């Protein structure tokens, strides 16, 4: 039936032709395909704690399977490598502290050599010069005691001891019937150790009868 032109549409439910508007449903499930039309990049963010993530991993991987065993082996090897690196760094740090003054003490050795050389030529001196020699000898002793406090010690190199290539450096050979073969016949330059480490070998003449 045609709508009377004098009638006013109730709440806007009729159009000019007298047809009823269909109001969209407010409640109820969303039309099919509405979820599919959502942007592809938008996904729900999942936030897990470290403990929850660990538990999830244990649930996903069986402790008895090969994948779990391989992952556990990799983890243990990484821990072992980390401990080895830590120990090596600590060892290198301690060694660096121990031998920190090595280069300085090595530069001071020529001074000690010159004092030894001066004292080695003191024969047939006048009384005045002998007093000077006494002063040089006292200076040498004070200097030697000072560097000994830093861990420096002389290498054993005296006439008659057996030649040791680890602490002696042969600079020549001599023939001395009074000594056995491969014995130190003369010390040319004293050698020194620093806290057990060879700082400079003793230069010696070796007997070769």
Secondary structure layout plus pairing:
Layout: H1 50-60, H2 66-98, H3 102-120, H4 127-148, E1 152-154, E2 168-174, E3 184-189, E4 192-194, E5 197-200, E6 202-207
Parallel strand pairs: 2-6
Antiparallel strand pairs: 1-4, 3-6, 4-5
Main sheet record: 3 strands, antiparallel
Give the CATH architecture of the largest domain. Answer: Roll
| CATH topology category name of the largest domain | Nucleotide Exchange Factor Grpe, Chain A, domain 2
Overall outline: elongated
Rg, please? 48 Å
Average pLDDT for all residues: 77
Low-confidence runs (pLDDT<50, min 5 residues)?
Answer: 31-38
**Counted beta strands:** 6
CATH class category label of the largest domain: Mainly Beta
**Could you spell the SSE succession in H and E letters?**
HHHHEEEEEE
List the total number of helices. Answer: 4
Portion in beta strands: 5-15%
End-to-end distance? 145 Å
GO molecular function, one term: unfolded protein binding
InterPro entries: GrpE (IPR000740), GrpE_CC (IPR013805), GrpE_head (IPR009012)
Subunit structure: Homodimer.
Family: Belongs to the GrpE family.
In short:
Keywords: Chaperone, Cytoplasm, Stress response. This protein is of the alpha+beta class.
Description:
The strands form 2 sheets. The chain has a 3-stranded antiparallel β-sheet with strand order 1-4-5, with helices on one face. A 3-stranded mixed β-sheet has the order 2-6-3, with no helix packed on it. The protein has 209 residues and is α+β, with helices and mostly antiparallel strands. The chain has helices spanning 50-60, 66-98, 102-120, 127-148, and strands at residues 152-154, 168-174, 184-189, 192-194, 197-200, 202-207. The chain contains 4 helices and 6 strands. Helix 3 (102-120) packs antiparallel against helix 4 (127-148). It is 41% helix and 14% strand. The longest helix has 33 residues, at 66-98. It folds into 2 domains: 56-98; 102-207, Nucleotide Exchange Factor Grpe, Chain A, domain 2.
């Amino acid at each position: 039936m045609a709508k009377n032109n004098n009638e006013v549409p109730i709440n806007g439910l009729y159009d000019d032709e007298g047809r009823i508007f269909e109001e969209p449903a407010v409640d109820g499930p969303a039309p099919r395909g509405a979820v599919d039309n959502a942007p592809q990049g938008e996904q729900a963010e999942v936030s897990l704690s470290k403990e929850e993530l660990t538990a999830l991993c244990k649930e996903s991987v069986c402790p008895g399977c090969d994948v779990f065993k391989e992952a556990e082996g990799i983890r243990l090897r990484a821990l072992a490598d980390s401990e080895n690196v830590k120990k090596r760094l600590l060892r290198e740090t301690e060694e660096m502290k121990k031998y920190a003054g090595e280069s300085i003490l090595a530069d001071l050795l020529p001074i000690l050599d010159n004092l030894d050389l001066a004292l080695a030529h003191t024969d047939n001196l006048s009384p005045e010069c002998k007093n000077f020699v006494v002063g040089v000898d006292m200076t040498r002793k004070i200097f030697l005691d000072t560097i000994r406090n830093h861990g420096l010690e002389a290498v054993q190199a005296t006439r008659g001891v057996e030649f040791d290539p680890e602490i002696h450096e042969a600079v020549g050979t001599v023939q001395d019937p009074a000594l056995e073969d491969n014995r130190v016949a003369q010390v040319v330059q004293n050698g020194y150790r620093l806290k057990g480490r060879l700082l400079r070998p003793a230069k010696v003449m070796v007997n070769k009868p």
